[in-house]
Structure formats: structure tokens, C-alpha cells
Amino acid sequence: MRPRTTGAALVALTLLLSSGTAASAAPPDGPPRAVERIARQTLPAGDGWAAEGPGTTGGATAAPDQVHLVRSRADLVRALGGDNATNKSNATPKVIVVDGTVDGFAADDGHLLGCADLADPEYSLPAYLAAYDPAVWGMVPPTGALEAARVRSVANQTRQTQINVGPNTTIVGRRGAVLTGLTLMIDGASNVIVRNLTFDDARDCFPAWSPTDGATGNWNSQYDQISVRRSEHVWVDHNTFTDGDNPDSAQPVYFGRPYQVHDGSLDVTHTASLVTASYNRFSGRDKLMLIGSSNTVGPDVGRLKVTLHHNLFDRVLQRLPRVRFGQVDVYNNWYRLAGDDFVYAIGVGVQSAAYVENNFFTLGAGIAPDGLLYDWGGTAVTTRGNWVDAHGALPRPVDLVAAYNATHDPDLGGDAGWTPTLRAAQPVPAPLVPLVVGPFVGAGRLPL
């Protein structure tokens, strides 16, 4: 039985105010005590899949000497355990408060590195483009010395910009906190909370040319803003995800395809499960959220359980989310979609079981309700209580499956085979979603 409704707005206000905002003195090398109290908050009971079983507490039990205020990449690595290569196994409970901008391209002495600093001596983009131009190389995957040099360059960047997070960790941002040019890698690190941060421009210096990806090939990048792998009990809340002043739309075109330097915002893959993403703003990006990275039937079966609620998908293009295998609860989200490059909202992948309820879709010119779902090899999706505000028309209820089936073959079934029970509150009606999402969503909304 679902919990009695208290209203999504009341839940949001409770999260914002439950710890108070009174000023207090800061301990040495740590955040103010009022900030620390909020930083120690845990996922509310029943709030999505991450609340299953013991719930998600992050670093709430951290000892006083494991509460850190960080202002640089070097600070962040030290707070996470001291060695980026081994921090992923550091299970000591810890609370990390980010103040200001942390740049993943900053060296330990603080100076900023560029892509040229991370490139292998044998790699250059002009040489790569000349060698693997399809007119010269053909439509087969790159091999040989230049591709090997690109791979070594990627390894250099991974050591620099992929920040490994260990279990029992909370990372929160003070107002205005930004993580730029980096990936938070949550791999084999359960019980993690990430809140109130702006993630900006997790760019790949060395994208790969994949000539067999699609009919004409594609450039593919490696780095997500948050990657959750082989982990459970992860809460991602009140964050903003953006490409900042380096959008994919501004990238050049090589081999007739956009030079893609960004990957996902929040990907949940490699058997990860029990994740709740709430009150996040995804703005102006292409690929957002991949849940399950392979069509291979195997370890992901029974995993990839994710809840998405009260998020804003703002002028974004695809994977909102794209789902394989998992039972994914998508409710009370606001989709504000526009632009000629829009692809789809919800991808129905192999053995996926998405439950899509009481979401509100605001659609710009050229986007129709029949294009909100995409068949990636799935068979069924439950959709109920959703509304659409299409360009030039009055807001109205929409049956997403019926709209899709009217213009596509084969048909999708309308029953994903399960009903969510882990919800902190009963969903509000879809027409109210912009009112309860808009004022509360994204970084900077928590009193930090």
C-alpha cells in the first residue's frame, strides 16, 4: 500500500528546513556546524529504490575528523582518502562539503592543465583525423599506433579527471559550489549521497571515432558527470547538470558527424541498483541518463532499480532515461523539451520495466507526443496520469503508449509488470508538477 500523501511540496520544504539554518561557528578546517547538520541528512524513509532495506545514510555517522571542507581537486582527493587510485575502497564514513569551484583539470599545485598536457606524445587530433578519415581508412574501427596513442591519452585523463568515491560518503555543495571538468566515479562504493552541486562540462579531450555506431558512424566520449557502477544505495539530490559554456552544439563536425566531447549526466550501469535521483535540474545537454549499458542478458537482470522523481529535464535531447532490464520508477518529473535536435524522452530497452506516472511534458514546436517514447528493443512500459502541453495546444492528458503505437510498429505493451511501492509521498496530479518542481529543483536550493 502506498503511503498517505503529504504533498510533494511539503516533502521538499521538510528536506530544506529540517535541520535549520541558524549560523554557528565553524570548527577548524571544517564547515559551519549548521552546514554540517544539513550535510549529515539521510535519505527519507520510503524515498524511492535507494530507501529499500537499510536505506541510504552516506557519511551521516562520520567522526568529527572526517568532516571536510574542500576548495580544490587536491582537497577533494585528500578528503576522500588521500590517494585517488585507492579512494574507491575507503569505506570510512565521511562528509565532504564543497565550497567554490573544484576543477578536475587542476594539478596538485593548483595550476590548470589543458588537453595538450594530458595527450600522449604520439597523439594529435590532426594526425588522427588524417589517418582515420573514412575516405582513407574506410568504415572500420581505428587500429594502429595513433589509436593506441589516443587510448593512452584517455588513460592519462582518467587518472586526472575521474575522481573515485568510496562507500559511506556524503558530498554536498555550499551555495554556488561547482564541480567542473570531472567525473564522480561511484564504482563498488555503496551508500553514497551527492547533493546541492552544479556539475559543469565533464569534457573528454580524446573522443573515439566509432564508424560502426549507426549508419554513418559517431564520435563517442567517455566521461559522465556522475557514474554509478556496481554500487547500491545511492541518493543524487538537488544537483544541476550542465555543459556550461562548452555545449555540444558548439563543437566542430568531423567525418560528417558532431565531435561529441560529453557523455552522460548520471549513468547507472554494471549491475548497480537501488538509486534515487530527486529534485535535479538537467539543462541543455544531449545524453543524460543511461540505465544499463549492455543488451547482454546476464548480471544486470534483477538489478538497475532506480527512482526518478521531481527532476526537471530542460531543453535536453535523449536518454531521459534510456532503460535496460531495470524496474525504473519515473514520476512527477517535468520535461521541458524543445529544439530541432530532440531525439526522445524515455527509451524502452531490452527487458526494461519503466513505470511512468504523473509527469508533465512541455513540448516545443516540432515535438509531438508520439515521439516521447523510443523502442530500444523493449516490449512494454507502464504509463499513467501523464499530461502534455504541446506547442500551440491546450494542456491535456496523454496516453504515451497509445500515442507511440499510433505511429510506430511494432506496438509496445502497456504493462511493465510491477507497481512501485517505495515513494515518500503519493504523486501529485501531473498539472501541478511544474508548480512543485520549478521552485525547488537544482543546486542552490538547500540552505547551505
Give the % helix. 10-25%
Largest sheet: 10 strands, parallel
Strand content: 25-35%
On the 0-100 scale, what is the average pLDDT?
93
Strand numbers in spatial order across the main sheet: 1-2-5-8-13-18-21-24-27-30
In the predicted model, the low-confidence regions spanning at least 5 consecutive residues are 1-26
**Overall body shape:** globular
| Radius of gyration, whole Å | 22 Å
- Termini separation comes to 35 Å
The counted number of beta strands is 32
Count up the helices: 9
Structural class: alpha/beta
Keywords: Carbohydrate metabolism, Lyase, Polysaccharide degradation, Secreted, Signal
Family: Belongs to the polysaccharide lyase 1 family.
InterPro entries: Pec_lyase, Pectin_lyas_fold, Pectin_lyase_fold/virulence, PEL
Protein name: Pectate lyase
Describe the protein in words.
- The protein is of the alpha/beta class.
- The longest helix has 17 residues, at 145-161.
- It is globular.
- The relative contact order is 0.13.
List the helices and strands and how they pair.
Layout: H1 8-17, H2 33-39, E1 67-70, H3 73-79, E2 94-98, E3 101-103, H4 115-118, H5 125-132, H6 134-137, H7 145-161, E4 162-164, E5 169-173, E6 178-180, E7 183-187, E8 192-195, E9 198-200, E10 208-210, E11 218-220, E12 226-229, E13 232-237, E14 240-242, E15 253-254, E16 257-258, E17 266-269, E18 273-278, E19 281-283, E20 290-291, E21 306-309, E22 312-314, E23 322-323, E24 327-331, E25 334-337, E26 346-349, E27 353-357, E28 360-363, E29 373-376, E30 382-384, E31 387-390, E32 396-397, H8 400-405, H9 433-437
Parallel strand pairs: 1-2, 2-5, 3-6, 4-7, 5-8, 6-9, 7-12, 8-13, 9-14, 12-17, 13-18, 14-19, 18-21, 19-22, 20-23, 21-24, 22-25, 23-26, 24-27, 25-28, 26-29, 27-30, 28-31
Antiparallel strand pairs: 10-11, 15-16, 31-32
